Amino acid sequence: MRYNIQYGDFVVLFISQVVELLIKILLLEDDDTISFGIEAALRRKGYECITCPSIEQGWECFSSDIHLILLDLNLPDGSGYDFCRWVKEQADTPIIFLTVRDGVTDITRGLDMGADDYIIKPFHIAVLESRIAAVLRRLPEDKQPVLVCGDISLNKDKMQGYLNGEPVTLTALEYRLLHILLENKGRTLPRNLILERLWDADGNFVNDNTLTVTMRRLRKKLNDTRHIVTIRGIGYRME
User: Which residues are listed as membrane-spanning (predicted)?
Assistant: First the structure.
């Protein structure tokens, strides 16, 4: 059986700059080839991927700081359904099944027991990445420690911005501006709305000129990113 996972450019992962991993994903998969391909692709995207070839190891590796589980159904020491049921008794951690079992009964059983998605093998790695992103977007705000747009990310717990996984030194005002843009990704934010949100903790007013200067400095620190778009006469949008 052939899996549409391309390995040719995975070597970039090991020779590129060190990436601080932000989102923890637990992968239960007993096929070494598939496991390697998925782990490499996810790490390249900036996720931390913990791989387990069995349910027993999955029990040992699971913790409350796991953000998402990728779960095969056919594991050497049991069924992925059992592991899914066990996880849901511990916490409401999102689960995506990855399996060759494509029967309607299998799919509905997985979804009915609380899985967030069900992907049938073979699959393209880009499809998996898209499904993962969709599930993570559905997490409640207080469970989303990281906001991401392209190569830009922000870790709210650490109050740290990143570009291509590398920390970016930001002032308090630049950090708040980036936070506002990422929280409202895809939405056009009028300048007056941004100014209201930027009003600092001490009650000091942030004027229009300060916003312009701060935005210019933020863009420069993000290598003149194209993800922050100016909407003439209105404001800005992160896209």
Answer: none
Please name each of the domains of the chain with its CATH number: 24-137 (3.40.50.2300), 146-238 (1.10.10.10)
Burial of 191 (C-beta count, 10 Å sphere; 0-12/13-18/19+):
middle
Side chain identity at 176, as an amino acid letter?
Answer: R
Strand (E) positions, the chain?
Answer: 23-28, 47-52, 68-71, 74-75, 78-79, 95-99, 117-120, 146-149, 152-155, 160-163, 166-168, 188-190, 228-231, 235-238
DSSP string for 166-183: EEE---HHHHHHHHHHHH
pLDDT tens digit at each of 239 positions of the chain: 444 444 333 333 332 333 333 688 999 999 999 999 999 998 888 788 999 999 999 999 998 889 999 999 999 999 999 999 999 988 889 999 999 999 999 999 999 999 999 999 999 999 999 999 888 877 765 556 678 888 898 887 778 899 988 889 999 889 999 999 998 888 999 999 898 888 754 556 678 888 999 999 999 999 999 999 999 999 999 98
